[in-house]
Amino acid sequence: MDTPVLELKNVSKTFPGVKALDGVGLQLFPGQVTALIGENGAGKSTLVKVLTGIYTPDGGEIRVGDTVVEFHAATDAVKSGISAIHQEAVMFDELSVTENIFINNQDRNWLGMLDWPLMRKRARQLLEYLDVPVDPQTPLKNLSVAHKHMVSFASAISHNSNIVIMDEPTASLSHQEINDLYKLVRRLKEEGKAILFISHKFDEIFEICDRYTVFRDGQLVGSGMIGAVTQNDLVAMMVGRTVEQVYPKTDAEIGPIVMTVQGLSHPTEFNDISFDLRKGEILGFYGLVGAGRSEVMQALFGLTKTNAGSMTLQNKPYAPANTSQAISSGLVYVPEDRQHQGAILSLPIFQNITLPRLGGLSRHGFIDMACEYDVARHYAQSLNLKAASLSENVENLSGGNQQKVVIGKWLATNPNVIVVDEPTKGIDIGSKAAVHQFMGDLVAQGLSVIMVSSELPEIMGMSDRIIVMHEGRIAARFDRDTASAEAIVTAATGAA
Amino acid sequence: MTNTPSPLARILAHREWILAAIIILMTVGIGTQEAFFISPNNLSELLDDTAILIMLAMVQMLVIVTRCIDLSVASNLALTGMIVALINVAHPETPALVTLVMSIGIGAVLGAFNGILVWLIGIPSIVVTLGTMSIYRGMVFLLSGGEWVNAHEMTPQFLAFPREVTLGLTTLSWLAIIMIVLVALFCRYSATGRAIFAIGGNPKAAVYAGLNVGKYQFITFCISGAMAGLCGYLWVSRFAVAYTEVALAFELQVVAACVIGGISIAGGIGSVWGAALGAIFLGLIKNALPVLGISPFWQMAISGGVIVLAVIINSRSEKQVGRRILREVHQ
Amino acid sequence: MNRQTLQQTAPHTTQHQTGNQRFLPDNLNGAWRNRLLRWETLLLVFVALAFFANTQLSPYFLDPWSLSDATFNFTEKAIIALPMALLIIARDIDLSVASTIALSSVAMGAANSAGIDPAGMVAIGAGVGLLAGLFNGYIITRFDIPAIVVTIGTMSLYRGIAYIVLGDGVYRDYPQGFAFFGQGYVYGVISFEFTLFLLLAVIFAVILHKTIFGRRVFAIGNNPTAALFSGINVKRHRMVLFTLVGLFSGIAAILLTSRIGSTRPSIAMGWELEVITMVVLGGVSIMGGAGSIAGVFIAVFLMGLVTFGMGLLNVPGIVMSIFTGILLIAVIGTPIIWRRVVQAQKMRSKMRGG
């Protein structure tokens, strides 16, 4: 057995109210790719932040080679030979590609001044090595999402680290770009680097990883060679039980057309979007990140101005000038980013639930508090919200319960059409099932749902029809029965 | 396959050139009306007159780039100016160079106080410097007892320093030019300078790159304070008087110069040249008003109006062009 | 939608979960309410201390007329502090209020010179303030620029216009009928200014804490994006708030001009700082989303008593500004440090326990 180049023993990290890491261990070996697997909230991101010096652990030890190390800043980790490609866009848009690559690792000349010619030369070499046709002097903001990603790779490689962490590196890449990435990972492997590969996609885990480590609720639940397990084994470890049926699609009766969209266009974001939506239907919108789905939905909600096209809602012309008109016309939008766009965390539950329909709870602009509590309690209880009282701030609730507040808030407006953007992003599998169950109930009651999702199983499991978007246009339409995973992905990546 | 920026974006990227062109056009335009305006003498006087604004605007640029603002510069200037003037009165033997170094040191300490409150306690910079603006100004009064320190009380060496003429320009003008070059070099060729721009552009990414956002904000407040201190000495000796209301509301002109120079109040974007040109633009207006027969009382309203106009123009040129999902639109 | 339609919406929600329904109480004596109470209690204690100190400084302080006089030096600022509290709760700020006073006062002076009667002057004073606020709000929301920069610009612009109009001159000779607003008494020693302030304080308290508008102001201040997604027209609300602040600056200008009976372009110099200090001293979060009119109301008295006391000690105005500056920083800094200390203690005790 090899000796690990990096070893974590009994590492813990506590935040107020949460034990994010609870005595976990991890080993990385030279020339091998280790997959780190776990649900959202299992502690993967915290681990990455501990490994890269952004968080300091409360206890345990990190050993690089034979030495025990302590990181107090991101630069400490780099010095120990650990570099990371972070999941979030943590780059500097206003700075040049060269500068982004060498942001904390600049070359200097004999005067102690930054040596730009040398750095540009090295940047060019790195980009050539990665096969990225980008001029190192371009400002980063002019690059495509995929190229930005490659620049962060270049930055990670520039340190010549022995340990490379990749946090969901394929999340925003197309099919071809993912293949290029695999090639790169294999090349790093051959050079003897130890790689920690964090991913949600089992196909890629089985394609390029050698080992696995599974976290659940901040604890290590298993690790070993990837060849010794099946996908089902990994899922069982992740969720702590076997998951049979995650997508309880109830067959709702599909009724007449509720909403039509004709030739909806925006100068830069999307073009010629046409579809209709029936009563009791779940219409799925699939596409890669940045395909323009959210932009279309925001146009439906009156947030984004369009320059062409028409809509009807309930057989009446529908052209919302702002969100308030959309809501009163019976269309609501449950945004993707709960923390920033959904709930108002530092306000109490009842104020969150009633916020979009305050107009109906007041006389001459004065709020009827008793009525307000009634409405809030009604939705809180029917959604089985777990909280101490209705006056508790939403920030004190768990992720699943926050989601319930957001949903309750929209139901309280009595809508006909609900647009849900990535409904299960960032919540655990148990809550996911509840949200899916709930969407099934909604359509069973005669509502119509438009669901934007980047998760293929969710789209295929829940939708009656599927629209695939690619680069701001509708690339394909599928019925529930005719949809195949291959066809959907091909359309989404523009390969068709 | 990088996206080619639109022609408009390319022009706006060279905003300093546009500003420079406007300045030259205005100068020439006024010169055709009043020939003496473009005489070397008048132009060097104009530079001498604007030098302090240029120096303060450059360092304010650094503060603004880190997403902060320093409204206490004018009060810092007044306080430091008063302190060195009083020292000069009490100890006339102090050499000018020592006074100079002292003023930088005092200013830096006052700036560091702002910086510590922003960095370690995390109070928004606008609140901190609004507070210290009135604290420092009040301290000038406390120190001087509301009295003026007049020219005859100061030593000739103290007064002469900024006014000595070398190669047709005063020491004050030369200092401004040297500072432009120094700060420009600092921005381009020092790790600290680059870090300032990086943390301003994306504070979150800065944490991942191991850059301590607060620390660099602190550094810019120290630099801003040091420069304000230096300018305090220069101001008091140039105008040969120190009193409580020295440079009252001057911070507004400094911020105006930055905004006119294209420095984004949202952070991360700005250049030394932009700040300097913004200052020169304001200096030009101030000096042109009497030449054109306009009351000097117009100056305040004009700088206010120009701030508002400039932020509108900045906001339009900075506007995120969207993600530009449709491909043919941006190619 | 009202109570009746509630039943119709019920079927939309899941029914299979209703079995294990739990009763949720309205309120469990929320922790934040306690905290707020504590802050306001603390302010009251300070008010009492300042009051006591003033009685020690001057034997005449308790005289009703003296007390009435004491209110004049803060009432005008306090009237701006009320809408400013709403604006800061909504995560905005207006630094141009003092300059708006100057502009508005100059407009009234000019109107007086042109022979317009006091009623017309009042309309002009309030109108100019309203327009100044509207202009701020329009520029800020239309171009999506931070309020700080825009109002730094208009701070210089508005006072600059006052200087253009008046230069180093002065407007005097306001008519007798105009004097009532700043010098008149409604009943006994109760001045018109002070009565107006009390009335406005009640109105603003009701607006902020009892109406939809107030609720939306809190929502916007806590999370502008979520507010937008909840169907709140965020831009329009911000516009209204800036316009309100402008309007009340105009009203303050009427009172101030009437009280001192003259207008110079340098009138009310530096007031923006004192107004903002009153608001944050009253417990309004400078980051938006939290605060109460009751807190601001008490803070106004605290500031007023302290300034009056310093006046009794013959402390010059510029030195008081040191006090205001320190107060501003201390009031914002102390809770931040306090929170950190408490959090550190919690972490420590948790580590010991677990």
Please give the structural blueprint.
The complex is a heterotrimer of chains A (496), B (331) and C (354).
Chain A: E1 6-15, E2 18-28, E3 33-37, H1 44-51, E4 59-64, E5 67-69, H2 74-79, E6 82-85, H3 97-101, H4 116-130, H5 145-158, E7 163-167, H6 175-190, E8 194-198, H7 202-208, E9 211-216, E10 219-225, H8 231-239, E11 257-265, E12 273-278, E13 282-286, H9 293-300, E14 308-313, E15 316-317, H10 323-329, E16 331-334, H11 338-342, H12 349-354, E17 362-363, E18 366-367, H13 369-382, H14 399-411, E19 417-421, H15 429-444, E20 448-453, H16 456-462, E21 465-470, E22 473-479, H17 485-492
Parallel strand pairs in A: 3-8, 3-9, 6-7, 7-8, 13-20, 13-21, 16-19, 19-20
Antiparallel strand pairs in A: 1-2, 1-4, 4-5, 9-10, 11-12, 11-14, 14-15, 17-18, 21-22
Helix pairs in contact in A: 4-5
Chain B: H1 7-13, H2 15-33, H3 40-65, H4 73-90, H5 96-121, H6 125-144, H7 156-160, E1 165-166, E2 169-170, H8 171-189, H9 191-201, H10 203-208, H11 213-239, H12 250-260, H13 272-291, H14 298-318
Antiparallel strand pairs in B: 1-2
Helix pairs in contact in B: 2-13, 3-8, 3-11, 3-12, 3-13, 4-5, 4-6, 4-11, 5-6, 5-11, 8-9, 9-11, 12-13, 12-14
Chain C: H1 3-9, H2 31-57, H3 64-89, H4 97-113, H5 118-143, H6 147-166, H7 180-183, E1 185-187, E2 190-191, H8 192-210, H9 212-222, H10 224-229, H11 234-260, H12 271-281, H13 293-312, H14 317-353
Antiparallel strand pairs in C: 1-2
Principal-axes geometry of chain C comes out as: globular
Corresponding CATH superfamily of the largest domain in chain A: P-loop containing nucleotide triphosphate hydrolases
Helicity level of chain C, as a percent range? over 70%
Biggest sheet features of chain C: 2 strands, antiparallel
Largest interface summary: A-C, 67 and 55 residues
- Give the termini separation of chain C: 50 Å
Task: Quickly name the level 1 CATH class of the largest domain in chain A.
Answer: Alpha Beta
By CATH, the topology of the largest domain in chain A is Rossmann fold
Oligomer: heterotrimer
Largest sheet of chain A: 6 strands, mixed
Number of domains of chain A: 2
Domain ABC transporter (chain A): 6-242, 252-496
Keywords (chain A): ATP-binding, Cell membrane, Membrane, Nucleotide-binding, Repeat, Sugar transport, Translocase, Transport
Subcellular location (chain A): Cell membrane
Protein name (chain A): D-ribose transporter ATP-binding protein
